[in-house]
Amino acid sequence: MIASPDRTPLPRNFFDRPILEVAPDLLGRILVRDTPDGPIALRLTEVEAYDGQNDPGSHAYRGRTPRNEVMFGPPGHVYVYFTYGMWFCMNLVCGPEGRASAVLLRAGEIIEGAELARTRRLSARNDKELAKGPARLATALGVDRALNGTDACTAEATPLRILTGAPVPRDQVRNGPRTGVAGEGGVHPWRYWVADDPTVSPYRAHVPRRRRS
Questions:
Q1: Tens digit of pLDDT for each residue in 69-107?
Q2: Full 3-state SS string of the chain
């Protein structure tokens, strides 16, 4: 069980800051997913920053669309997208309303509700792999587009909440290029992770998809 100090919700002004301040500061924070079958809590160990219309790697680079609408809304809300026709991934919206920056939640350690997460991640060889990667994280927590737009920094009962947890000391934070990002956005060292943590996903450079002949 998480100690009571860790269950203090992060305030909205935590997210209403520049994206490169928020992203590394999310490491060690606690994400709680409340489900009808019980809660799952996860300690964040890896994230990636996406800087909206200033960032070629961002979904919001070319402006507002029905898909990315939530990114332009208030900070502290959840942006969920569907990718490769198979997987959901979740982000936390940052910066002032209308700015469209967000942090992708790439990996974490399940610290509560592992038995429930295991039922969703049957292919995981051990508990360290339950949320090792953004699609695995969303799957383990049972996150889909129905949760898009959820307010994650509120004391009220919501399906997703982000809590204070225990921030990771800066000397234990590492950063490097974002995974699988192509072109100009591929050079930004905006992936942050906890050094030597076994739940962090492996880095993979972008590989162009080949068209079938």
A1: 999 999 999 999 998 878 999 999 999 999 899 999 999
A2: CCCHHHHCECCHHHHCCCHHHHHHHCCCCEEEEEECCEEEEEEEEEEEEECHHHCCCCCCCCCCCCCCHHHHCCCCEEEEEEECCCEEEEEEEECCCCCCEEEEEEEEEEEECHHHHHHHCCCCCCHHHCCECHHHHHHHHCCCHHHCCCECCCCCCCCEEEECCCCCCHHHEEEECCCCCCHHHHHCCCEEEECCCCCCCCCCCCCCCCCCC
**Rounded to two decimals, what is the model's pTM?**
0.92
CA-nearest of 116, 91, 90 to 34 is 116
Amino acid at 101: S
Instruction: Give the separation between CA 126 and CA 213, rounded to whole angstroms.
Output: 39
Residue 39's pLDDT band (cuts 50, 70, 90): very high
Q: With 0-12 CB in 10 A as exposed, 13-18 as middle and 19+ as buried, what is 49?
A: buried
**Token code pair at residue 111:** 């610290």
* Closest by Cα among 198, 194, 144, 149 to 170: 194
Say if CB 118 and CB 99 are below 8 A apart.
no
